[in-house]
Amino acid sequence: MDDPARDKDGNNIWDKSPSDGALYLLSIGSIEEYEEAQAQQLQAMRESGIKKNKAVPYWSEVHKEYIFDDNYGSHSPEDGYCSRKAHQAATQHYLSPSTITLCPSAFGTPTRAPVNHRITRLRHEAPRPISANRRATRKQELKSVMPTAVTLFHELFHLVLGNEKTYPSIGETYAVSQMLDLNYEDAVSNPETYAAVAVAYDYTLNSGVDSDGNRVEFFAGYAMQGVASRRHG
Questions:
Q1: What GO molecular function terms would the record report (predicted)?
Q2: Which residues face 23 on adjacent strands?
Q3: Of the candidates 124, 125, 119, 91, which has an alpha carbon nearest to the alpha carbon of residue 105?
Q4: Rounded to an integer, what distance in angstroms lies between the CA atom of residue 175 and that of residue 186?
Q5: Considering only CA atoms, which of 55, 53, 51, 17 is closest in space to residue 35?
Q6: pLDDT (tens digit, 9 = 90+) per residue, 162-200?
Q7: What is the pLDDT of residues 208-223, one digit of tens each?
Q8: Residue partners of 160: CB distance under 8 A and separation at least 6
Q9: What's this model's pTM, rounded to 2 decimal places?
Q10: Which alpha helices (H) appear in the chain, and where do they start and end?
Q11: Which of 26, 40, 124, 174 fits as disulfide partner to 13, beta carbons 3.0 to 4.6 Å?
C-alpha cells in the first residue's frame, strides 16, 4: 500500500504540500477509496472460504483499477498469481466485468512467467482401453486424457455461477478418486467434477466402438471398453 497510487486513467496521483507547495506522489494506502476497496475484497475472499490475513494491491490494465489479492512476492502482474507453480487459472468477481486469468502453465509452457508466451504442446491423449488380461496403466487414467481446454471449462463454472457457489466446504478437489467420495453438496459445488464427467462423456461419445459395439467407459476413473460392461452388467 506504500507504492504510488494510480487514478482511473492509470496515471500517478499527485498532491501539493501545504507547507511549501511542492508536488509529491500519493501512496495507495493514503487514499480512502483504495483502503475501503482493500477491506471489502479481503472480506469477500474470507466469506467465499478463502482464508487470507492480508490483501495487497495489483493494478489491472484491463479494468484500470486495483484488485487486492494474496501477496505473491510482488505487486507487479508479471509476478502475481501465475508465478506460483501450482496455479493454472483463477476467476475474479471483485472488479466488473468479471474475468478469468489463464496462466501459461495451463497450456504446457516450459516456464510459469507470463513473459514466455510460447505454447509447447496442447494436452491430448487417445484413450487406451484395458484388455481383459492387463492391469490399468497411468495413461489409461481419466486425468491423463484431460485436454488443455479443461482448465478454461473449469473456470467457466466459477465465472457463471460465482465463486461462492463453486467452492466445496472441504476445498476444491481434483483427484478422480477423491471426487468419487464427495458428498452431494460438495460434488455439485466442485467444478472439476463437472470437468471430469464432461471429458469422460466426450470420449464415450466420440471414441468409436469395438467389434462388439462397446464404447469407451471410465469405471473407477480408468478407460475401459467392453471389459467393464461384462463385469458390471
A1: metallopeptidase activity
A2: 16
A3: 119
A4: 14
A5: 55
A6: 988 999 999 899 988 899 899 999 999 999 999 999 988
A7: 787 888 887 776 666 6
A8: none
A9: 0.75
A10: 32-47, 150-161, 176-179, 184-188, 191-206, 227-232
A11: 26
> Which grid coordinates belong to 211?
467389434
For residues 167, 111, 126 and 226, what is the CA-based torsion angle, rounded to 10 degrees?
-40
Q: What stretches of the chain adopt beta strand conformation (E)?
A: 14-16, 23-25, 56-60, 65-69, 89-92, 99-102, 216-219, 222-225
Interatomic CA distance for residues 70 and 47, integer angstroms: 15
Can you tell me the distance from the alpha carbon of 222 to that of 138, in angstroms, rounded to the nearest whole number? Answer: 9
What count of residues does the chain have?
233
Q: Are 37 and 56 in contact (CB under 8 A)?
A: no
**77 upstream amide cis, omega within 30 of 0:** no
Closest Cα partner for 57 from 132, 5, 16?
5
3-state secondary structure at position 141: strand
Q: What is the mean pLDDT of residues 110-116?
A: 46
